[in-house]
Amino acid sequence: MAARHFHIPLLLLAWLVAALRRTAAGSGTVAAVAAAGTIGPLAHGLPPTQTALPALALGSGAAFLGRGDQRSSRWR
Hints:
This protein has 76 residues and is mostly helical. 57% of the residues lie in helices and 0% in strands. The protein is built from 4 helices and no strands. It has helices spanning 2-5, 10-25, 28-39, 52-62. Helix 2 runs antiparallel to helix 3 (28-39), helix 2 packs parallel to helix 4 (52-62) and helix 3 runs antiparallel to helix 4 (52-62). The longest helix has 16 residues, at 10-25. The radius of gyration is 13 Å and the shape is globular.
């Protein structure tokens, strides 16, 4: 895998993938779900106590470049 070849930590890779997808797609939900599908197989061997860390990295990466005034259409 390229991540292991370049020695990129899994959490940084998860954040970068989600942030790049958010920038490309414009939707945080799409970015988080698509990045989770990409990063999920890499996180398969993590101990159970560390499984939430990639999810947090994906969530914060998906919030990258989000505007403060963006709201769900259901709350308008």
